[in-house]
Design goal:
With 154 residues, the chain is an alpha+beta fold. The protein has a single domain, classed as PVUII Endonuclease, subunit A (PvuII Endonuclease, Chain A). It contains 5 helices and 6 strands, in the order ααβββββαααβ. The protein starts with a helix and ends with a strand. The model has no long low-confidence stretch (mean pLDDT 90).
């Protein structure tokens, strides 16, 4: 039994999601919640109340409140390259986007951060319809415009 009831619930949800994927071949849909909680646990960011438009967490940097949108992606071994992260609405308020990469057990493997200006530039660059219209960046593109905040040791 852990001291944090949310961690306890997430541990159970992770087990159920793994089992569900084995049985159906499809994800259960808890990646976003797990990613947010992992970012808070690992980086110490403060999660906002549910349904906060534009950002999921805040962090104090140099005395200023920094608004962070958090995206999560479960990257399975042998998965196809070119996976995309969830939609980023650039009309909403945020200062940066965190991408939490999870393994098949829904454990964080790395957390990347990209500043708002870089995200907007990447999403509005001429080219991909999915990127421009749906606000969806590929994982490799996100990594190229951002920097690593945390990485699990080998």
């Amino acid at each position: 039994m852990t001291a944090d009831p949310v961690l306890e619930i997430l541990a159970e949800a992770k087990k159920l999601a793994q089992r569900y994927r084995v049985l159906t071949g499809k994800p259960l849909g808890i990646t976003g919640e797990v990613a947010e909680y992992e970012a808070a646990r690992i980086l110490g960011v403060e999660l906002t109340p549910a349904r906060q438009a534009g950002y999921d967490a805040t962090e104090i940097r140099d005395g200023q409140t920094f608004r962070l949108q958090i995206k999560g992606r479960c990257v399975l071994e042998g998965s196809k390259p070119g996976q995309r992260i969830g939609s980023i609405d650039i009309k909403k308020e945020f200062d940066a986007v965190l991408l939490v990469l999870l393994d098949g057990n829904f454990e964080a493997t790395a957390i990347y951060e990209a500043p708002r200006a870089a995200v907007i530039a990447a999403l509005t660059a001429p080219g991909s319809k999915s990127r421009n219209e749906r606000g969806a960046l590929g994982i490799s593109k996100f990594k190229s415009i951002g920097f690593i905040r945390w990485q699990r040791s080998a």
